[in-house]
């Protein structure tokens, strides 16, 4: 059950459309389902505003289908799956209708939440090689109900490419800066924007980049204020945080007295 569904139940009780007993029955449903290999959290949407997300890596197609079945059965009509391989996606698609993006391993069931954030999430990359991580972030942010602007291949090696998008940068509610190599993009964007910047180091780079560790350390040591950093290649985590920032105003509007 998501928070919007809880509000709907309470409104129906207030209007006399359902009884208090029926409302209690719906709220008392088991908060998770134990299906053996997974304990599927059905109250996460109620607690956090967003339902559970399936991390596809390391799971068999049968396990993923079982988790999806449990989610749908308990009213989670929109499901996001990350790090889903092509082979696993093919197997899952035999049972469920999925919108699959093989370039970043994202799959969606039930479509995206309508964009209802307070502004726009801008996603920028240093280079084209960072796009798979950026698309994981962009598709996650769109699934969570955000308007997304993509600024790809605007790294510091040709900084004029970034400067051509100052309007998008300066009007953003939150920016995700994604880069490998030395990870300098986050500091540059952080020095231009008046909003939170979430830096994502990627594993793109030559040997001394150490699989993204160099970019991670550079971003952690950024001299620009307002820059936070997530783990290497973690586009999903950056998008989730960005969505929370972009919905803070909406959350305050919906807070009951």
Automatic annotation (TrEMBL):
Residues 119-251 form the PurE domain. It holds the Pfam family AIRC. GO terms for molecular function: hydrolase activity. This is Phosphoribosylaminoimidazole carboxylase. PANTHER family: PHOSPHORIBOSYLAMINOIMIDAZOLE CARBOXYLASE-RELATED, SLL1489 PROTEIN. InterPro entries: P2CMN_synthase_LarB, PurE_dom. GO terms for biological process: 'de novo' IMP biosynthetic process. It comes from the Bacteria.
């Amino acid at each position: 059950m998501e928070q919007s569904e809880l509000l709907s139940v309470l409104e129906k009780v207030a209007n006399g459309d359902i009884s208090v007993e029926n409302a209690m029955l719906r709220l008392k449903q088991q908060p998770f389902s134990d299906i053996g290999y997974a304990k599927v959290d059905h109250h996460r949407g109620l607690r956090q505003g967003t339902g559970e997300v399936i991390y596809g890596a390391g799971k068999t197609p049968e396990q993923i289908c079982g988790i999806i079945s449990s989610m749908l059965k308990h009213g989670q009509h929109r499901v996001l799956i990350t790090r889903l391989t092509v082979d696993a996606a093919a197997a899952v698609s035999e049972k469920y209708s999925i919108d699959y993006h093989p370039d970043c391993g994202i799959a969606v069931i039930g479509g995206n939440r309508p964009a209802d954030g307070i502004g726009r999430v801008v996603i920028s990359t240093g280079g084209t090689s960072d796009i798979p991580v950026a698309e994981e972030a962009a598709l996650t942010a769109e699934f969570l109900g955000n308007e997304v602007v993509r600024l790809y291949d605007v790294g510091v090696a040709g900084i004029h490419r970034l400067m051509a998008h100052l309007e998008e940068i300066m009007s953003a509610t939150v920016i995700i800066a994604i880069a490998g190599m030395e990870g300098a993009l986050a500091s540059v964007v952080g020095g231009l924007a008046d909003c939170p910047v979430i830096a994502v180091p990627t594993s793109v780079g030559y040997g001394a980049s150490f699989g993204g560790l160099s970019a991670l350390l550079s971003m952690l040591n950024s001299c620009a204020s307002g820059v936070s950093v997530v783990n290497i290649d973690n586009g999903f985590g950056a998008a989730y945080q960005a969505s929370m920032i972009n919905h803070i105003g909406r959350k305050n509007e919906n807070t009951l007295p």
